Structures are given as structure tokens and as C-alpha cells.
Amino acid sequence: MVLAELGGSISRALQQMSSATVIDEKVLNECLNEITRALLQSDVQFKLVRDMQTNIKKIVNLDDLAAGHNKRKIIQQAIFNELCKMLDPGKPSFVPKKGKTSVVMFVGLQGSGKTTTCTKYAYYHQKKGWKPALVCADTFRAGAFDQLKQNATKAKIPFYGSYMESDPVKIAVEGVERFKKENCDLIIVDTSGRHKQEAALFEEMRQVSEATKPDLVIFVMDSSIGQAAFDQALAFKQSVSVGAVIVTKMDGHAKGGGALSAVAATKSPVIFFGTGEHMDEFEVFDVKPFVSRLLGMGDWSGFMDKIQEVVPMDQQPELLQKLSEGHFTLRIMYEQFQNLLKMGPIGQVFSMLPGFSAELMPKGREKESQAKIKRYMTMMDSMTNEGN
Ligand SMILES: Nc1nc2c(ncn2[C@@H]2O[C@H](COP(=O)(O)OP(=O)(O)OP(=O)(O)O)[C@@H](O)[C@H]2O)c(=O)[nH]1
């Protein structure tokens, strides 16, 4: 994840500032310039970066801070708050409610990862006990319906689409009607993405939106879009009422800073991000934990959530009891390694711990570490079996 590089640069700038003997105007400026450079290199829009720098300078007035104030902490906090402000449009997006029908429409440019993301979004909710359904209103790209059908079948999610019908509005309306009758609580409408014929794309999108009256329109954005992100996101927002953003391909070589620009352009929050092609390579986006991870400060609440997801509820107190009594057996270690593997890519898990950054665990190394854990587990398995 290249955003981790941004995180690495920002934490290095903060560390340099922390190791300075005296925090004066010069040290603060050097730190801010370093952060500005890192943000611009990550494709964050120039105006956003300039505003952030001005705001921090306004908040951190070194002359006014009496001796005894922890200037490092104040600067760090100001940087943290400003980065959060960049990613937080100030109003939450519509949140669908389990058991109550919501229609969610996905829009975005061709190849942004819309179709894949629709299934990831459906699968994420299905795992939490929702009844999602997918409607393929992309009649432009040959193969779009097959792709959605294949993904949906794999995840056992009901879907609707047609090989014959060429009117996306008709398909969208029929699909939504059908799944409403079937009491699905999350009806997801995938629309076509195009590159060149943008006027036609926007008109079609507007018509699908008018006909299906979605509760939420999600703009899917490829993180590699770079500086173009602001204008693209704005164009979508001007045609349909985008209410949330999902950023895809955060695992790739993209600089990722476009996400911040998309938030500014659509005034809508990022709600999830995609970190791979697989169905479960999808993470909830929360501003504070994200910025915290970006600055290498960890995300304990995310880490605890992951643990709760993978360690069965009934085993959690027993595990804590055993650990607090100092009972750490080979069997417990084996089980915890198993849980660790279930928590997802190892780099993602480590990036939740303070002092770690996903930059420290590039994708190739991640596979290597995962394979090593699996080898240890096989060894332990045979050792524990021998002991029985
Ligand atoms: N690495 C990575 N690849 C992704 C991610 N999300 C989607 N992709 C891949 O991106 C490619 C394009 O994704 P699609 O879902 O087909 O894109 P789309 O926006 O629906 O495309 P159109 O229907 O042509 O508009 C596919 O190869 C996906 O597997 C992600 O988070 N990470």
C-alpha cells in the first residue's frame, strides 16, 4: 500500500522534529515542509495541502506557548487533527439498516473496480447477517453481467441481470422491484463505467438514479487516479447525488492521495477501501484509526475488533484467563497462529500495532511470512499430536 509510504514520510518528519533539542519556528517549518512534500508526492490536491499547512501554523503559535507546554505533542496533535479534517467531510453518509430495505447504487469510471466492489460490499454485509442482492445495470461492457453473476454465485448472493435487454434503466427497475418483493435489505445496483463517452455515461447514470431512487450513491474510485481524482469525483457529484466514496486498489502502486481529494470534491466520506482482488480484501474506513495508522500510532480498536471477529466469543474469556495465569502451551500458540491467519493479510494486521507501518511488510514479504506461519503450524501440529 503506497499510502504507507506517505505514512512513513510523515512519521519520519515527526520523528525528526521529536529528536530536535529545541522546537522553534525553523524546526516546525522543516517538519511541515516535509509533510507537504509527502502529501503532494502522494497526489493530494495542492489547495488541500496548502490549507492544511496554513491551519497548522495558525493553531501552533510557538511564541504564545509558554515554557512547559509539550510543543511536540501539540504539533503532532495539530497534524493529526488536520489530516482527519481532510478526510472527514463533516457529515456522515447514509447508513443502511439491517432488516429495512435500502437501495445502494454504485457509480465510477470504467475499470475502477465497481463490479468487484459491489460484490465485496454485498459479501461484507452478508457475513454480518444481512440479506443483500446484486443488480447488474451495466449493459455497456460485454461480460459485465457474467462477471457479476460469477462473483455473486461464488458468494451465494442473489443477482439479477439480462443478456438480452440493453436498457440499463429497465433492468435496474426490474431488479430492484424483484428484490424488494423478496425482502432483501440491501439491494446493490451496479452501473456501467465508461471512459470516453462521458456525457452518455452521466445521462444514463442520472436516469438509473431517477428510476431506482437509491438511498445511497457510492462513487468508486481507483486509488491510482492521482491528481485527476478531484475533477472526476466532482463531475460525478454534479450528475448524481454521491453520498459516499469507496477507494479501490490501495494494495497496488498507487499513491492513494487522490482519496483525500475525492472526499473534498464530493463532500462525502470514504466508507470502505479495497486492498486486493479477493472478496474479503475490503476494509471499513474510519478516519481516526486510519490517520493513526498512517502516522504509525496504531489502531487498537481495529485490532481488538479483528480479534473479536476471529476468536469465537465463547473462547475469549477462557483464553484471557489462561494467558493471565501464565498458561501458554504449544496448543494455545497453535490456535492463536490459526486465528492470526484468519485475521487477514499479515501486513494489514501489523499496521494496526503502534510503531508498525504497512510499509514494513511489502506484499511479497507478506506472503512469505504467511507461508512461514503455516510451516510452523504444521510443525507444531505434528509435535502436539505426538504429545497426545
Ligand atoms: N489489486 C486490486 N484489484 C482490484 C481491486 N478492486 C478491483 N480490482 C480489479 O480491478 C479490475 C477492474 O475491476 P472491475 O470490477 O471489473 O471494474 P469495473 O469498474 O466494474 O469496470 P467496468 O464494468 O468496466 O466499469 C479487476 O481486475 C478487479 O479484479 C482492489 O482493491 N485491488
TrEMBL record:
<comment type="similarity">
    <text>Belongs to the GTP-binding SRP family. SRP54 subfamily.</text>
</comment>
<dbReference type="GO" id="GO:0005786">
    <property type="term" value="C:signal recognition particle, endoplasmic reticulum targeting"/>
</dbReference>
<dbReference type="GO" id="GO:0030942">
    <property type="term" value="F:endoplasmic reticulum signal peptide binding"/>
</dbReference>
<comment type="function">
    <text>Component of the signal recognition particle (SRP) complex, a ribonucleoprotein complex that mediates the cotranslational targeting of secretory and membrane proteins to the endoplasmic reticulum (ER). As part of the SRP complex, associates with the SRP receptor (SR) component SRPRA to target secretory proteins to the endoplasmic reticulum membrane. Binds to the signal sequence of presecretory proteins when they emerge from the ribosomes. Displays basal GTPase activity, and stimulates reciprocal GTPase activation of the SR subunit SRPRA.</text>
</comment>
<feature type="domain" description="Signal recognition particle SRP54 helical bundle">
    <location>
        <begin position="2"/>
        <end position="87"/>
    </location>
</feature>
<dbReference type="InterPro" id="IPR036891">
    <property type="entry name" value="Signal_recog_part_SRP54_M_sf"/>
</dbReference>
<dbReference type="GO" id="GO:0006616">
    <property type="term" value="P:SRP-dependent cotranslational protein targeting to membrane, translocation"/>
</dbReference>
<keyword id="KW-0694">RNA-binding</keyword>
<dbReference type="GO" id="GO:0005525">
    <property type="term" value="F:GTP binding"/>
</dbReference>
<keyword id="KW-0733">Signal recognition particle</keyword>
<dbReference type="GO" id="GO:0005829">
    <property type="term" value="C:cytosol"/>
</dbReference>
<dbReference type="InterPro" id="IPR022941">
    <property type="entry name" value="SRP54"/>
</dbReference>
<keyword id="KW-0963">Cytoplasm</keyword>
<dbReference type="InterPro" id="IPR003593">
    <property type="entry name" value="AAA+_ATPase"/>
</dbReference>
<dbReference type="InterPro" id="IPR036225">
    <property type="entry name" value="SRP/SRP_N"/>
</dbReference>
<feature type="domain" description="SRP54-type proteins GTP-binding">
    <location>
        <begin position="101"/>
        <end position="296"/>
    </location>
</feature>
<keyword id="KW-0378">Hydrolase</keyword>
<keyword id="KW-0342">GTP-binding</keyword>
<dbReference type="Pfam" id="PF02881">
    <property type="entry name" value="SRP54_N"/>
</dbReference>
<dbReference type="Pfam" id="PF02978">
    <property type="entry name" value="SRP_SPB"/>
</dbReference>
<dbReference type="InterPro" id="IPR004125">
    <property type="entry name" value="Signal_recog_particle_SRP54_M"/>
</dbReference>
<keyword id="KW-0256">Endoplasmic reticulum</keyword>
<dbReference type="InterPro" id="IPR000897">
    <property type="entry name" value="SRP54_GTPase_dom"/>
</dbReference>
<keyword id="KW-0687">Ribonucleoprotein</keyword>
<keyword id="KW-0547">Nucleotide-binding</keyword>
<protein>
    <recommendedName>
        <fullName>Signal recognition particle 54 kDa protein</fullName>
    </recommendedName>
</protein>
<dbReference type="GO" id="GO:0005783">
    <property type="term" value="C:endoplasmic reticulum"/>
</dbReference>
<dbReference type="InterPro" id="IPR027417">
    <property type="entry name" value="P-loop_NTPase"/>
</dbReference>
<comment type="subunit">
    <text>Component of a signal recognition particle (SRP) complex that consists of a 7SL RNA molecule of 300 nucleotides and six protein subunits: SRP72, SRP68, SRP54, SRP19, SRP14 and SRP9.</text>
</comment>
<dbReference type="InterPro" id="IPR013822">
    <property type="entry name" value="Signal_recog_particl_SRP54_hlx"/>
</dbReference>
<dbReference type="GO" id="GO:0008312">
    <property type="term" value="F:7S RNA binding"/>
</dbReference>
<dbReference type="InterPro" id="IPR006325">
    <property type="entry name" value="SRP54_euk"/>
</dbReference>
<dbReference type="GO" id="GO:0003924">
    <property type="term" value="F:GTPase activity"/>
</dbReference>
<feature type="domain" description="AAA+ ATPase">
    <location>
        <begin position="100"/>
        <end position="277"/>
    </location>
</feature>
<dbReference type="Pfam" id="PF00448">
    <property type="entry name" value="SRP54"/>
</dbReference>
<dbReference type="InterPro" id="IPR042101">
    <property type="entry name" value="SRP54_N_sf"/>
</dbReference>
